[in-house]
Amino acid sequence: MGGSPSFPIVPIAKDRIFIVTGANTGIGYEIAKWSAMMGATVILACRSEERARKAMETMQEEFKTEKEKGTTGLTDSPTLAIEFMKLDLASFQSVVEFCEEFKKSGRQLHVLCCNAGLGANSYKQTSDGLEIMLQVNYLSHFIIIAKLLSIMRRSGPDCRIVLTSSGFHKGGTFDLTTMNYTGNARSFPDLNYYGRSKLYQVMQAFAMSRRFKDSNVAVNSMHPGFVDSEFFRDVTGIAKCCFACFRTCGAMKNTLEGATCGIDLATNPKHAGVSGHYWVNCKITTPSSTSRDEQKQEMLWKETFPFIQKYLTEEEIADMEGKSPNRL
Ligand SMILES: NC(=O)c1ccc[n+]([C@@H]2O[C@H](COP(=O)([O-])OP(=O)(O)OC[C@H]3O[C@@H](n4cnc5c(N)ncnc54)[C@H](OP(=O)(O)O)[C@@H]3O)[C@@H](O)[C@H]2O)c1
Fold first, then answer.
1. I want to staple 258 with a disulfide (CB 3.0 to 4.6 A). Which of 25, 183, 185, 224 is the partner?
2. How far is the CA of 259 from the centre of ligand 1 (A)?
3. pLDDT tens, position by position, 264-289
4. 48 lines ligand 1 (CB under 6 A)
């Protein structure tokens, strides 16, 4: 996995705590590995312990190789400070348990990378009765942010939330009456619903950043590019052949190239306090006009809560609105 990095390798204190969702493979793997190689303590929040532990072993091996290569700026520590925590974003119960366990640890939280995601798939409903991409890509990450925000607020300066969205947010329809697909599974417009979930993330970053203005928590979303990860693992037929061609002709980024923007947003000191932007190739970029529409962002915000509010306390909701009495 990977190649040569094109982001600055900066020293990060070990007591800076990162959470990366979906860190066992693909873009999340590289974000977690490079953040840890710079010195951070990184929690891999993954649904499969087995896959996460394998990934952690590979990360340690790749760290050794990187040191042997003489890459400068890596942590002096002999091993990476990486840990596994169980998180299945397709289950609100798992999301709540993950947050409770993290809270119980009494740790600070400095960087939260909401990266895990599912692509255009045939229709699947979660045990919570929701279309899976809506829940995994958007709603569950929303709950994690709401539940851990108070910890981030108390974790000192320069805390960051990075949402891995997609340029494909432009392909998602903004229709809040059909946020949760309830039609016929066979006519499920999978790409459109993938685009919707990614559109919500871009809008969520804008809406949150407005609410967290003048606080220590910055929120940004980004598009990693067209990346040769496991994202397309379930693709079959003609689409599979197309991907083989894209790979062969170099149209896809490798996972490290795809992770570069996320790593940069999570670690580069020059981004401290920079909030409320959509990034592509490490540059602030203009997303779709729908995503930038403040009125629509607020409509989305309002329509999101009925899906998730029973998992949040009044304090957490107030905190998200920037109204908590405990806000620093
Ligand atoms: N690849 C691209 O071209 C591309 C383009 C634009 C945006 N993105 C976005 O980039 C992000 C990362 O994708 P990737 O390309 O790195 O794909 P990937 O290689 O498939 O990795 C996705 C990660 O998400 C995890 N995940 C999926 N469902 C989950 C669940 N229910 N609970 C917890 N974790 C779950 C996967 O875990 P398992 O390994 O257990 O399945 C995996 O760790 C996604 O949000 C995606 O939308 C990707």
1. 224
2. 12
3. 999 999 999 999 999 999 999 999 99
4. yes
Q: Is residue 325 part of a domain?
A: no
Number of domains in the chain: 1
**Is the distance from the beta carbon of residue 229 to the nearest atom of ligand 1 less than 6 Å?**
yes
Note the pLDDT tens digit of each residue in 172-212: 999 999 999 999 999 999 999 999 999 999 999 999 999 99
> Which residue, by CA, sits nearest to atom 45 of ligand 1?
117
State which of 230, 255, 260, 279 you would mutate to test the pocket of ligand 1, scoring each by most atoms of that ligand within 8 A of its C-beta: 230
**H helix runs in the chain, sequence order:** 26-37, 49-68, 92-104, 132-133, 140-153, 190-211, 237-248, 255-267, 289-292, 294-308, 314-320
Task: Tell me, yes or no, whether 250 lies in a domain.
Answer: no
Position in ligand 1 atom list of the atom nearest CA 198: 47
- What CATH number is attached to the domain comprising 97? 3.40.50.720
What range does the domain containing 96 cover?
A: 17-226+255-319
- Which atom of ligand 1 is least distant from the CA of 88? 32
Closest-CA residue, ligand 1 atom 24, reads 116
- Give strand pairing partners of 96: none
Question: Which H or E run contains 265?
Answer: helix 255-267
237, part of any domain: no
Whether the CB of 166 sits within 6 Å of ligand 1: yes
Does any domain span residue 161?
yes
The whole-number pLDDT of residue 233 equals 81
As a whole number of angstroms, the distance between CA 9 and CA 185 comes to: 46
